[in-house]
């Protein structure tokens, strides 16, 4: 016989997944308490998408997520597709627009998404308590937990961990969820920063730093990931822009990334055509019609780039093509959690039910959102995972 508890459900973390889960559970008439140590709910939502929150994507598929078990995300995403969240946004009268690759953003402000979620929590009867420090958690019977807060003790039947990942520590990210998972014997996979800019080695910095501010459309590919054709941005520190951020989620230190700087062009053919049209034209001049001049100068030494097209040997043409279409770069690292949008790794999904997000080892203990080993691509997929996993759990906890 379990003893009566203060709440049916306590959720730790009032971010995207926690808010969604709380409203869903409370609409089932569960007595729900949502706790957070921050002074505001949904802080990452507020700064997301440049303040306009890329809240979901029109085309969400399991392959848009990185997870050790690629099948894990299927059930929750199928039960709560992006259309359901779009309908919620529309019911609240929030205006939005679509950008490239199916990304949906608020017209006005990300604040509207946080207000919408807090309104849903209020309508459903969720109690929200902010600035709460949780000191410890213990199991008190076969399905029940006691939380030791600075402000006192609280008990619940179901405990949901929605404390997110480690990115942006300034916004209140903590390893709380990982530590709690380990306390209950769950495996936590190594974490690292994802959707994060790359940094140059010292010699690369010397060579490419002056390209800072240049953006080109490129294909960027880490060795074990798909190629992403999006904008690539050169910065003082390294490479950023959507194409680099996406590739970073598949990159491990010591591996090269491959860049195709002219993804829509057959470079060899272009150079042959240019040579036929004006044989005396220099390589630099010919390539500067395809790419920013400063980039061409940084990629090819003066001796080669000042050669006229009709002087180029076959081997040189092959090397030029390889440089432009298959540029192999061994980068120093990434900017880390300080600027990362997500955390790769986390609570091993093999430990959780893909239908409910409940721990298989500790009944009544659930994990939702980014704290688990699920990371989405750039483009609204991370929020879609937060909504979908939050709902899957909220319907069960
Ligand atoms: P989230 O991080 O949102 O929430 C965790 C909550 O737990 C926080 O409120 C935190 O205060 C709380 N918490 C942590 N430790 C605690 C503790 N010890 N005690 C109590 N509370 C604790 N995604 C996307 O789809 N579209 C986008 O436009 C963007 N843009 C974007 C921009 C930037 C700058 C970042 C950093 C990230 C994004 N993302 C994004 C990613 C997205 O923000 C992220 O994946 C989700 O917010 C994850 O939701 P969660 O609820 O899991 O964690």
From TrEMBL:
Keyword Membrane set for record: yes
Residues in RsdA/BaiN/AoA(So)-like insert domain copies: 193-342
Keywords from the UniProt entry: FAD, Flavoprotein, Membrane, Transmembrane, Transmembrane helix
Residue ranges annotated for the RsdA/BaiN/AoA(So)-like Rossmann fold-like domain, each copy included: 8-394
Cofactor(s) the protein requires to work: FAD
Domain of life of the source: Bacteria
Membrane-crossing segments per the record: 7-27
Annotated Pfam families: HI0933_like, HI0933_like_1st
Record protein name field: NAD(P)/FAD-dependent oxidoreductase
Source species: Alginatibacterium sediminis
